Amino acid sequence: MVTISDTIKQHVAHFKIGVITYEQIVVGASPNMLKGKLRQFQELLYFDMEQTPLADWPEVKEWRSVFKQVGTDPSRYRPSSESLLRRIQKQSFIPSIHSAADVNNFFSLYYKLPIGIYDRNNLHGDIVVTIGTEADEYIGINDRTTNFEKKLVTKDAQGAFGSPIVDSKRTMVTDKTTHAIQIVYFLPSFTTTTCEQILQAMKKMFIQIHGGHAYTQLIL
């Protein structure tokens, strides 16, 4: 079961997440179609950022506001979606990793939202999205240890494993993953209809590439 803690609800009105659970998927090298799509979209975003500064993008502004509401300094810690956009701004385009990571990065860029994907075989018990304490930290997929005190963090029975900032090595998806869970950290301003449409679009594309089957949940 995945829930949002009361602590978040007290700090951020209308906070919501989407969850997509995947079963019997096959992760591997990305097809050329996906590689091309990811590269082409990054080039489009680069030109968009030349026209409009990233700090003026509505999604970036709203996420920074959410971070401030939970006690995070958005100039020190950024949503993963903004971090990806900043790389593109420097023309340090995101390379292909594997099919699951590439789809995840594409949708994060397309919707300008932090999205995490996790290997379900490395998750234990119920999952809760909350505001972290000084006890919540992990080694991220960037090989750095991050502490999640006063930051949005996602935890299972073994502790923190995910965040809109960076995800952990413990639960990262690899080419051996067959069961996964994807968490979409939606903007509070998004309507439930918009959120549902995004989840369905993500599920459809992911299954087209990876096979298997999936189901979605919107958690308010």
UniProtKB/TrEMBL annotation:
Q: Where is the B3/B4 tRNA-binding domain?
A: 61-211
Name this polypeptide is given:
Solo B3/4 domain (OB-fold DNA/RNA-binding) of Phe-aaRS-beta
GO MF: phenylalanine-tRNA ligase activity; RNA binding
Checking SMART domains in the record gives: B3_4 (SM00873)
